[in-house]
Amino acid sequence: MYFDMAKMDAIKALEIYKRAGQQAEKLSAYYDYCKNLELAKTFQFPTLRQPPSSFLATMEEYIREAPSVSITRKSVVSAFIVSKIASKKEIKTLNINPLLFC
């Protein structure tokens, strides 16, 4: 979905994603505070996990290369993803045929 967005929509989505990450950090700090309270000793707080920073970097990179209009053609998005994988030389490690994405 994200890689099908037009540039302005992708920018807005990235801002929301970053804000959600900041809120998750604050919520995690709040959970840590609550764990020290006597009333919350028996409560099990959920573990919040952030996606890897490489995911955020890929989202930012897409914005730099994103078209100004929405693209729904799968081959264009797949070509972008394959080019990123190939640039990291993961394609040889995974034995993926790039033609499968076209």
Automatic annotation (TrEMBL):
<feature type="domain" description="AP180 N-terminal homology (ANTH)">
    <location>
        <begin position="1"/>
        <end position="65"/>
    </location>
</feature>
<dbReference type="GO" id="GO:0030136">
    <property type="term" value="C:clathrin-coated vesicle"/>
</dbReference>
<dbReference type="InterPro" id="IPR045192">
    <property type="entry name" value="AP180-like"/>
</dbReference>
<dbReference type="GO" id="GO:0000149">
    <property type="term" value="F:SNARE binding"/>
</dbReference>
<dbReference type="GO" id="GO:0005546">
    <property type="term" value="F:phosphatidylinositol-4,5-bisphosphate binding"/>
</dbReference>
<dbReference type="GO" id="GO:0072583">
    <property type="term" value="P:clathrin-dependent endocytosis"/>
</dbReference>
<dbReference type="Pfam" id="PF07651">
    <property type="entry name" value="ANTH"/>
</dbReference>
<dbReference type="GO" id="GO:0032050">
    <property type="term" value="F:clathrin heavy chain binding"/>
</dbReference>
<dbReference type="InterPro" id="IPR014712">
    <property type="entry name" value="ANTH_dom_sf"/>
</dbReference>
<dbReference type="GO" id="GO:0006900">
    <property type="term" value="P:vesicle budding from membrane"/>
</dbReference>
<protein>
    <recommendedName>
        <fullName>AP180 N-terminal homology (ANTH) domain-containing protein</fullName>
    </recommendedName>
</protein>
<dbReference type="GO" id="GO:0005545">
    <property type="term" value="F:1-phosphatidylinositol binding"/>
</dbReference>
<dbReference type="GO" id="GO:0048268">
    <property type="term" value="P:clathrin coat assembly"/>
</dbReference>
<dbReference type="GO" id="GO:0005905">
    <property type="term" value="C:clathrin-coated pit"/>
</dbReference>
<dbReference type="InterPro" id="IPR011417">
    <property type="entry name" value="ANTH_dom"/>
</dbReference>
